[in-house]
Amino acid sequence: MKIVFEDLFEQANWQPIVYQGKKLIRADKIHLPAEKTSIRVTFIKTDSKWKQGIALRPLKGRVEVEGELYPKGKLSRLWEHAAPKVINVTVHAKDKILWVYNLWETEDKTVHFWHNGAAMYVEEHEGYKIYYCNDGWPDDDLNDLIFKLEILPVQEEEPSPKKSRAKRKPLKE
């Protein structure tokens, strides 16, 4: 069925919509448990002629993927065809908020999001979410990209050794 979700989102003033009994969103705002939070992304399935990916965007922070810290304000993209099936990410977000949304790349190498047929249905479970994404193609199958996002338990950072404030005697006088 041909459906342009962008028109429905616009009519709803860009707020979530209900379509066939499902709440659809353009982006998911995740409240993180700490300023530094580890998440795990698992790519489950794609069914599209276009390359599929996700954006991870803390507005007040950065994302670290496999040891690479993305510059502040730079959109972090994980592409299903290029990333490992399961990938751990560390989010550094001063406001403890992470935005997640789907992306797709068309044949002309243009990256798109949030328009035409784009929408996401999010299934919430204890400790994780499953995202069913529609790319810009105007259909309503919500299977162009399916992925899982888990919030991992917050790891306590080991305290750094305290430095002595006492003056040290020189080793040799």
Question: What does this protein look like?
Answer:
- With 173 residues, the protein is mainly beta.
- The protein has one domain (5-151): Jelly Rolls, CATH 2.60.120.
- Helices cover 4% and strands 46% of the residues.
- The protein is built from one helix and 14 strands; from the N terminus they run αββββββββββββββ.
- A nine-stranded antiparallel sheet has the order 1-2-12-13-14-4-9-6-7, covered by helices on one side. Strands 3, 5, 8, 10 and 11 form a five-stranded antiparallel sheet that branches.
- β6 and β7 (68-69) form a beta hairpin.
- The model is unreliable at 160-173 (pLDDT under 50).
Short key terms for the protein model shown above:
14 strands, disordered C terminus, 173 residues
Secondary structure elements and their pairing?
Elements: H1 5-11, E1 17-19, E2 22-25, E3 28-31, E4 36-46, E5 51-57, E6 61-65, E7 68-69, E8 76-79, E9 86-93, E10 97-105, E11 111-112, E12 119-125, E13 128-134, E14 145-151
Antiparallel strand pairs: 1-2, 2-12, 3-10, 4-9, 4-14, 5-8, 5-10, 6-7, 6-9, 10-11, 12-13, 13-14
Gross morphology: globular
Order of helices and strands: HEEEEEEEEEEEEEE
Strand content: over 45%
- CATH-level-2 architecture: Sandwich
By DSSP (H or I, 4+ residues per run), the number of helices equals 1
Helix content: under 10%
Average pLDDT score: 88
* Category from helices, strands and their pairing: mainly beta
Number of strands: 14
Report the end-to-end length measured between terminal Cα atoms: 87 Å
pLDDT < 50 stretches: 160-173
Please tell me how large the radius of gyration is.
20 Å
With strands numbered from the N-terminus, the spatial order across the biggest sheet is 1-2-12-13-14-4-9-6-7
What would CATH call the class? Answer: Mainly Beta
Examine the coordinates and then state which fold CATH places here, giving the name of the CATH topology: Jelly Rolls
The biggest sheet amounts to: 9 strands, antiparallel
Number of domains: 1
